[in-house]
Amino acid sequence: MTAFDAATEARVSDLVLGDRRHGLPADVTDARFWDEMYDSREQIFSGNPNPVLVTEISGLTPGRALDVGCGEGADAVWLAGQGWQVTGVDIARTAIDRAARRDSRVTWVHADWTVTPPHAEAFDLVTVHFVPIPRRHARNLIDAVAPGGTLLVTGHDLSDLPAGHIPGFDPADYVEPAALAEQLGDGWTVLVDEKRRRAPDATPHTHDRVLRATRDPI
């Protein structure tokens, strides 16, 4: 999933506030939340792959890749173009339907990865960009990486956000890339764990957090 533009961020905030007005919990891992967001516009994202993905993955030997929270499919399509065998998974049916119309080389899966975890040690690359990772389910992503494989996670640096930026969203419920690195344990090598300045855009974000780690081969 690529970063939100200003209009999309406003739409996300509207959806959360709407839930709160009706006494419902604001849950950014809920399918209804994302379906409403994608249904609000014909296209949410630019259609370009995340720059971090291109920078960090270019040059790796292609294998089996899992794009978690693939959205409208830009990252998965780019990976397929590099020779990867890609599975893109997203909780939003509208997003998956749009992605499937873009490229038939990718295996598109409509599913909630927190409910149906990916198979353990099944992927040479697990990539997650700007997708909320619930703390209690973070291990699902780590375990999906095969020996010798790569985990790449990008998220907004939360210090950029003013308090209450998205009402109802509690960062403590989710794992940032740096915290995910601490969960890897033995058998992993962390290659990148840093705060990285992002290209100027219309959002309030100025920095991202990037984690790239490899699992030791057997």
The tally of strands reads: 7
Q: Sheet bearing the most strands, described?
A: 7 strands, mixed
H/E order of the elements? HHHEHEHEEHEHEE
Oligomer: single chain
Class, according to the CATH hierarchy?
Alpha Beta
Which regions contain 5 or more consecutive residues with pLDDT less than 50? 3-26
N→C terminal distance? 31 Å
The named CATH superfamily:
Vaccinia Virus protein VP39
Report the average pLDDT across residues: 82
Which range does the strand content fall in?
15-25%
CATH architectural type: 3-Layer(aba) Sandwich
Helical stretch tally = 7
What is the domain total for the residues? Answer: 1
Q: Using the coordinates shown, work out and report the CATH topology.
A: Rossmann fold
Share of helix among residues?
Answer: 25-40%
Biggest sheet strand line-up: 3-2-1-4-5-7-6
Shape: globular
GO molecular function: methyltransferase activity
Keywords: Methyltransferase, S-adenosyl-L-methionine, Transferase
Protein name: Methyltransferase family protein
Organism: Actinoplanes lutulentus
What is this structure's SSE topology?
Layout: H1 6-21, H2 31-39, H3 51-57, E1 64-68, H4 74-81, E2 85-90, H5 93-102, E3 107-110, E4 123-129, H6 138-143, E5 145-156, H7 177-183, E6 188-197, E7 207-215
Describe this protein's structure.
This protein is an alpha/beta fold. The chain is built from 7 helices and 7 strands. It has a single domain, classed as Vaccinia Virus protein VP39 (Rossmann fold), CATH 3.40.50.150. Helices cover 29% and strands 24% of the residues. A 7-stranded mixed β-sheet has the order 3-2-1-4-5-7-6, sandwiched between helices. The longest helix is centred in the N-terminal third of the chain and has 16 residues, at 6-21.
